Amino acid sequence: MTAEASTADARAATSRSGWGSVVRLESLGGTVELGPGGAHPVIDRGTARISEEALNRLLMPLPLPLTLRLNAGEAAVEAEVGGFRISATVHARAGHTGKLRVEATSLRLGWLPVPPHLLALALGRLEGRRGITVDGQRSLELDLPELLSAIPVALDVRVSHVRVEPGWLELHCVPRSGR
Amino acid sequence: MSESDPLRIEIENAAVEISPEGLEAMLAGRGVDLRFSQLEFRLSAAAVQALVQRLMPGEGEPARAEVTPQGVSIEGEKDGRRVRIRLDATALRLQPGEGELRLVSEPATRETG
Q1: B8·A31 Cβ contact <8 A
Q2: Which residues from chain B sit within 8 angstroms of residue A41, using beta carbons?
Q3: Phi then psi for A100, rounded to 5 degrees?
Q4: DSSP H or E segment with residue B26
Q5: Which residue of A lies nearest to B51 if distances are taken between CA atoms?
Q6: What is the pLDDT of residues A120-164, one digit of tens each?
Q7: Residue of B70, B13, B16, B71 whose CA lies nearest to B42
């Protein structure tokens, strides 16, 4: 079975289940503190499976129109920069500080190499965004607790392992403090 | 767990899913729509003790709770009279039904002779 067929089967199965989740959080651990102000949940470990659809939705607010496609072991990204369409092959892994490190391993402008000023323009649009750190000419680090600060659960985690498969990104997270 | 913050529930294992609509609502700040398929919580003895003291406030001795693998016992005062409740159970099951939730205990095996 091809990777595309496998992804299509998985999507059909989720659609049949009537729920069609785009984010699955499994093996979650942490605490819920019950105080006068209510419940304060803190998650400090778990596995997040995030679908391609959800990732593309999460990328929408970025000031750089991006389309992401998850394949086996890598992602294909297309971005519109300065009127040009840049394609990139992207690899994701756990960074040394527990952030999600995203690195473009190949960049193309059609069949031409990407001019450095276009790349600098693209990264410059992301620099300074909350939870995003530009690290080098082709790499970004994403701080998940910062990026997901809108959710009603505090995240005290660091990414320990990353897996990319067709249609899904899987992040294994452990306590940030290394407990 | 510190003494000043005893009401802390440990999440030992949980699984939750978010639908496309739920994600959209969450990102737009409209609300939360989560679907849990697994929940395992743990309450430490200190947390149970704190919970019991809140449920059984009194002017005398504060209510006490003891948790063992054979069950739970609670001791306190109500209107100046001593109240002691012991639940002999090795498990408590929260069972959803049609429009109701049932808390069902699994009885502890009593030693005879």
Answers
A1: yes
A2: 11
A3: -85, 115
A4: helix B20-27
A5: A34
A6: 888 888 888 889 999 888 898 999 888 888 778 899 999 999 999
A7: B13
DSSP secondary structure of chain A: --HHHHHHHHHHHHHHHT---SEEEEEEEEEEEEETTEEEEEEEEEEEEEEHHHHHHHHTTSSS-EEEEE-SS-EEEEEEETTEEEEEEEEEEE-TTSSEEEEEEEEEBTTBPPPHHHHHHHHHHHTTSTTEEE-SSSEEEE-HHHHTTTSSSEE-EEEEEEEEETTEEEEEEEETT--
User: How many other β-carbons are positioned within 10 Å of the β-carbon of residue B105?
Assistant: 14
3-state secondary structure of B7: coil
Token look-up 């785009």 returns A22
Q: What is the pTM of this model?
A: 0.82
